[in-house]
Amino acid sequence: MPKTIFVRKPSNLAELKTGIEECKRLFNSKGSDYYVAEELQLSNQEWERLTESFLEDRCRFRQFSEKNLPDTEEGTPCIRVTCPSSEIALIIDTQGYDYARYVGIEEAETSSQIEEEDETMYEEDYEETEELTEEEVVDGLRALLMGDSLDCTMLDNCNTRTYEDGGYLTYDKGFVIDTPDGHRFQITVKQER
């Protein structure tokens, strides 16, 4: 049975790492049993958003919580979250909530690997990418509406999600565009007539 040290309500990856080290130092903890009930592979941008704010409500975590999976002999049902550019995997126990209430790092990681993660995780992703401006985003969206291919705009390789999926606290309808260079643009739709 796999084990991990879970940290309750860490706000970000740095706080998670600190919490894990404190549990090891203060309590000599070996962790809690869990089983992987779901695998989730994130893009680099999604990983960055998650690890910067574990407490943000997320549609995927709500869907997992709604399954109401029981604890078993193997342990607590969890989501294993990975990213191609990250050497660590997160183990998330939502405890029925819409956010990452308890978070751990897959046991195979050592303290030195965890520290190296901070230094190398995003360097490759943003070294040689061109920054998008607001004007280029508007031009790209207009081109798409006029029938151009996504490949013909500067929006290629961008990720989008609705305000609802992103957990934004608004009644507005719209979506967010996350660019490969790490910038985020909000597009709000308002009916004029």
Tell me briefly what this model is:
The protein has 193 residues and is α+β, with helices and mostly antiparallel strands. The chain contains seven helices and nine strands, in the order ββαβααβββαααβαββ.
Spatial ordering of strands, largest sheet: 1-3-4-5-6-2
Question: From N to C, what is the helix and strand string?
Answer: EEHEHHEEEHHHEHEE
Q: What fraction strand?
A: 15-25%
What is the helical fraction, as a range of percent? 25-40%
Number of strands: 9
Plain-language structure description:
It is a single chain. Helix content is 32%, strand content 23%. The protein has 193 residues and is of the alpha+beta class. Strands 1-3-4-5-6-2 form a six-stranded mixed sheet. Strands 7-8-9 form a three-stranded antiparallel sheet. Strand 4 (76-82) and strand 5 form a beta hairpin. The longest helix has 15 residues, at 13-27. The chain is elongated and about 60 Å long. The termini are far apart. Residues 109-115 and 120-129 have low confidence and may be disordered.
Keyphrases for this structure?
single chain; 193 residues; alpha+beta; 2 domains; 6-stranded mixed sheet; 7 helices; 9 strands; 32% helix
